[in-house]
Amino acid sequence: MTDFSALLQPDRGQPAHLLHRISAADHEVWRSGQPERVRSALAAARFAAKPGQFALVPGAKPEDWSAVIALSEEQGPWDIAAAAERLPAGTYRLAEGTPGYAALGWLLAQHRFDRYRSEPEPQPQRVLLSGDPARIDAAVRLAQAVALVRDLVDTPAADMGPAELATAAEAIANECGANFTVTQGDALATGYPMVHAVGLAAARGRAPRLIELEWGDPAHPRIAIVGKGVCFDSGGLDIKPGASMLLMKKDMGGAAHALALARLVMQAKLPVRLHLLIPAVENAISAEAFRPGDVLTSRKGITVEIGNTDAEGRLILADALTHACEAKPELIIDFATLTGAARVALGPDLPALFCNDEALAADLLAAGTRTGDPLWRLPLWSGYRDMLKSGIADLNNAGEGGQAGAVTAALFLERFVESGVPWAHLDTFAWRPAAKPGRPKGGEALGLRAAWSLLESRFGS
């Protein structure tokens, strides 16, 4: 993991190169007020304040050079990320103001996933000074959380199966002083039968399990965080086409988000009783695979006819949500790479938010706007519940007709959430198909920062 704490330091007046942040609208006015040496350097670099541009300009002495960087159109966390990816190694401070939320982009722009490179490229260390030292630790923790999601998702399924996911969760539990348990084998078959059924076809070393972590004072408000941990999804007997399997290492992206959010809660010592649940499976193919037409009995006792073995994520989440509700939490948030339908509707950048509580939904949407981590609410439209009808069981796991797939998946999950428990479901992509400043192609945290901001504002001091 990148040592983010070394890249963001308190400003104690130490020597540093200045960073001038310039918007396109202010560019000409700012430029006209600069010395000739600066104007000449900008002209030579063809600097026009286009997003992502930067230029090095000389000072009165050779060692006094500074950088002019154009603000990103997105601004917020990413307005100086492009510069952080390409500036020379050294120490920098902003010419005006403090980094604020842009510190996150500065840190993440310098993170690399190089586990599988025989000769990782050396990374120049670019240190940013902050005149707001009280916010440094929070920025570092948030960068660590995003990097954790990216690294877990980017790890190939061969090295990130249910056992490895449990190991990652146990390491975080030990780091933060949480109670850690894993349920598997006969206890899983009895207590979480749909988790067991989905993961039964996997090889012996990749057996299904329910990963749990509990932390905090039992007297504090209880919150549950649930993450879909399908470590690889072949589609099961309703097998996916080969091209559709290429990114299926990311199908545990919900679990990665849940782990990262739980770690943020514990690191910040929020006054809550935290319950983390990750049903971890591989949806594989063997003689023990569950079949189309099978009927599974869930932990809640609801029977589910299998209309499609590739709609497995909602099955394992159903058992986990049932268990979460048994402890009567004040709030449940689940993350899942659940449906392609959400991506068709909203694309890769916008997680679909489904929520049974208006205040929670409004607060999450506001948190997404505040943090530059937007969500888009879709409806729990009760009129589509009939799409999940089964002729022989209480529910079918795959909606009929192929329409409103994200909605029917959320409606399926809603059946396993107790009435009166505020619940938010984030159908996230957990992947960035094309690089942007501070955000490489690959695993991505989408909805994590919004959820953390919500919890921090509700339960933080």
How would you describe what is shown here?
This protein is an alpha/beta fold and about 450 residues long. The protein folds into two domains: about 5-115 and about 130-135, 3-Layer(aba) Sandwich (Leucine Aminopeptidase, subunit E, domain 1), CATH 3.40.220; about 155-460, 3-Layer(aba) Sandwich (Aminopeptidase), CATH 3.40.630.10. Helix content is about 35%, strand content about 20%. It has helices spanning about 25-30, 35-45, 80-85, 100-110, 135-155, 160-175, 185-190, 195-200, 240-245, 255-265, 315-325, 340-345, 360-370, 405-415, 450-460, and strands spanning about 10, 15-20, 55, 65-70, 90-95, 125-130, 180-185, 210-215, 220-225, 230-235, 275-285, 295, 305, 330-335, 350-355, 375, 395, 425, 430, 440-445. The strands form four sheets. Strands 7, 8, 9, 10, 11, 14, 15, 16 and 18 form a nine-stranded mixed beta sheet that branches.
Q: Summed up, what is this model?
A:
One of its GO terms (molecular function) is manganese ion binding. This protein has 461 residues and is of the alpha/beta class.
For the largest beta-sheet, the strand count, sense and barrel status come to: 9 strands, mixed
User: Care to count the β-strands?
Assistant: 20
**Backbone shape:** elongated
Structural class: alpha/beta
* Number of helical elements: 15
Name given to the CATH architecture of the largest domain: 3-Layer(aba) Sandwich
Looking at CATH, which topology of the largest domain would you report? Answer: Aminopeptidase
CATH class descriptor of the largest domain: Alpha Beta
GO molecular function: manganese ion binding; metalloaminopeptidase activity
GO cellular component, one term: cytoplasm
Organism: Sphingomonas jatrophae
Protein name: Leucyl aminopeptidase
